[in-house]
Amino acid sequence: MSPVRRSALELDELIEEITVDCYSEDEELTAFEVTFEQVGFPCKGSVVRENVEVLAITTVANRHELIATCQRNGRRYDIALLDIDLNAGPDTSNLVAGYRQ
Fold it and tell me: Domain for residue 1, yes or no?
């Protein structure tokens, strides 16, 4: 499924909606994590042209980025969300676009 493109203004509004009560970058990261928990997983994706199933998006201690837990051939991997090409529905794709921005 190809993502629905949002304008920069729409992405700014989405980011503001997610982070409205945040006072630090750590809180903003947690707000995105909570929002990702509310959308549908698992979803398909690819890492270095290898197909994976994305099981969850979380934060990890001492890393200031979102991490995707992926599965391929029965093995699980934790990979930076920004290193994955997701093939997800519009809600998830919009969240990724907002996180990237």
Answer: no
